[in-house]
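To assess whether ligand presence alters the predicted conformation, the chain was also submitted together with DQA. Input:
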Amino acid sequence: ESVDQVVEEMHKAKAQGADVVEVRLDCIKQFQAHQDLEIILKSKPLPVIIVYRPKCEGGLYEGDETARLEALHSALKLGADYVDFELKVAAELMSKQNKLHCGGTKVIVSCFLDGVTPSKEELSNLATHMQATGADIIKIVTSASNITELARLFHILSYSQMPVVAYAVGERGLISQLLSPKFGSNLVYGSIEGMAVPGLPTLESLRKAYKVEHINSDTKVFGLISKPVGHSKGPILHNPTLRHMNFNGLYVPMFVDNLKEFFEVYSTPDFAGFSVGIPYKEAVIQFCDEVHPLAQNIGAVNTIVRRPSDGKLIGYNTDCEASVTAMEDALQECRCINGEKSLVSPLAGKEFVLVGAGGAGRALAFGAKTRGARIIIFDIDFERAKMLAHAVSGEARPFGDLPYFQPEKGSILANATPIGMHPNKDRIPVSEVPYLK
Ligand SMILES: O=C1C[C@@](O)(C(=O)O)C[C@@H](O)[C@@H]1O
């Protein structure tokens, strides 16, 4: 909001690994164009993009248009590395002055499209129109309401003859930014610490979790299909693993609203595999070409591989074995006798109280059954609880009875509900104070 702060934040951006920094003049209070730009451009530690967004284009500037354009021209004259002109302005300037440039400054012509992302043809026409202004780089930003719209932006990025930046903002737009280097984007935007911008990844995540500098056209994409998706630790788990294996791949969160449309649009070998999260673990089975017998039995898939030989989607369930062995490992630690682990599963014969009979719950129940546990199931949908109980020879209880349930000593409680998920991490589905008869 002040020139001093701009200078300070530019240095922070550099320290956090940015290559270029965008300065939004419209955010500076009592902005004095010439004087302030001189300070900013003299003290810049990195190449700078100067942006001065008016309110009608999503910015904060509400003043006179002539003063705004004069400020942008000052930035050109003072040697800003890049100046961003909105398409409308750029087209007008070109028709009046026949030029947008000054010195070595590069001109970005930008366009923000609110609402549904236009078709590929419309986007191509728009890109041609933007290019005709004499821009060095064109930048198209949309507000995607569905992840499938992003494929049109990837198309523009892949086929454009000139440098393009194209991405969508919002939770559903995130992968357009993370994957944009794969499809040829010139810049990836990230926000610096303490200045989170809704819908933009943080610079730190771009550098540390996603390592965008390593992404290229051969990078295979893996993603978590889920809704919501922001809670997942998947990216910080899988991306370092992929790098450790020297595998050119990237794991990204994919906010999916419609499974059918998703699989239709993202059907190329570039999209090599998926994790499946809440609420799709059961519904996704119908989109798999083949399903592993264990996953078929459980009725839930949490991992999909696109088979390289024929592109078919093969569904697996890794939740079952993973969750049960995690519990066994934890219980074995308490059971070690003279440093020896017992060969019998510590779940054998135990009371196993499962809350939530959805995709994750089903995997847990099947896993616990293979280890000989006695399974008691609660779910807000009693029919669903009964169906699962029938499949694992367990017992379903009405959800309303949960607060009064008297567990056996040493009984295991498994929470397979969204209760306790980010951001309400300290919640659990039962009372912490036992019910006393
Ligand atoms: O349950 C989980 C967690 C997960 O959904 C996630 O949020 O990262 C990913 C799934 O593959 C896994 O089965």
